[in-house]
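Researcher: Next entry in the queue.
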Amino acid sequence: MKKDNIEELFNELQDKIDYAEPTSGHQQRFLEKLNQSKGVATLAPKKKSPWMLFLSVAASIAILLSVGIFQLNTTSSIGDQVADISPEASKTQFYFANLIEQQINELNSEKSPETERIINDTMTQLKKLQLNYTKMEQDLLNGGNSKLILSAMITNFQTRIDLLNEVMIQIENIKSIKKSNDENYTI
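Model: Structure for this entry, 187 residues:
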């Protein structure tokens, strides 16, 4: 029977139910009337100022920039970290790197059509050796056997220097062969 009463109620109210959206501010007016009937004071709605939005975005950007700058200043290069672990390795690296740079400059000054291929191959080998050296630096930072890794790093530098010396000898041989061929060739 109760079911019949509910169905009858819905049937009677079917044409009277309002499905439209309430007008803007309806909720605020309702709360005000509710609070007045209970004797409670109403709170004024907060107005959103465009300046507050702008200031909050600017403050967020400033915080992000300051955190980013702080991160950049605190991260040290791998070379600095290696120097912290072994100051001797840093001095050795500086010495060998300068020596290798001088030899590379000398090698590049000898570049000619006859020597271009051997110089390019040498530069490729030097890049591979540099990548191996970088991996060794990373292994050292990750806590590997420091004596063994430092020895391998020095051997890497010596290998690069030996390679450059051998190539310079080969280039000198190429130049002397070319010179003797030019002297033997008569017009």
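Model: Helices lie at 2-13, 26-38, 50-74, 78-85, 87-109, 116-141, 146-184.
Researcher: Noted, moving on.
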